[in-house]
Amino acid sequence: MKKSILLLLFPIITYAQIPANYYLSAENTSDEDLKYELNQIIDNHTIFPYTSSSTDTWNILSETDKDPNNPDNVIMLYSGISINAAQEYNNNNGWTREHVWAKSRGDFGTEDGPGTDVHALRPLDGTTNTVRSNRGFDNCNSCIAVYDKWGNDTGSFRDANDFSFEPRPEVKGDVARMIFYMAVRYEGYDGYVDLELSETILGISDNSPLHGVQSTLLEWHRNDPVDTWEENRNDIIYYNYQNNRS
Hints:
Layout: H1 3-12, H2 31-42, H3 57-64, E1 66-67, E2 70-75, E3 82-84, E4 95-99, E5 121-125, H4 126-132, E6 136-137, E7 143-147, E8 153-159, E9 164-166, H5 172-185, E10 196-197, E11 210-211, H6 214-223, H7 228-242
Parallel strand pairs: 6-9, 10-11
Antiparallel strand pairs: 1-2, 2-3, 4-5, 7-8, 8-9
Helix pairs in contact: 1-2, 5-6
């Protein structure tokens, strides 16, 4: 992870109701030292299963991404559409779980840790999930509009030539910060894959633990700052479930 990302990380994570001294060990550090200290703070989080008869990622996302105007619904990441939270997959007629850091980029699938970390899981319809696939994030040049399974224009795009995906403007910063979180949390120290940022758009069959495009994600982060939705989501994950912050 380059210095430019590291210098941004500390201000990114100083939002919401942070416990006293939570980031104390990272203060007055920079570059790789900062990345290491942040990793040590947010690692060893409480892990919940991907799918289970007990509390799992479905349950957590139903709370973290709850529609504030309709508590029975969840908000789809790339469209903002609200659908019934009880419709978990439902033979692909409901919603699914989007790995914002594509689970093939590092080939971790849905295994405990990177595959179940709800800081980077979000509700999504199956059609948009298929279109996004494991595309890297970038501004499109030859833009093709993405429609969800119900025919709604999501406001997101895929590129006709590059294997990339551009989310709707309202969540570009959210996407960037979720990718930044994964690159800091998963450093390979605890047996999990070492995830890193890249300027490269990888092909569909490339399982390298890289995700980009770093410079574009930085731009999205700057242009779409943290809002109360992200703050609330972070607090729910920290206090109610994983006991770590993004």
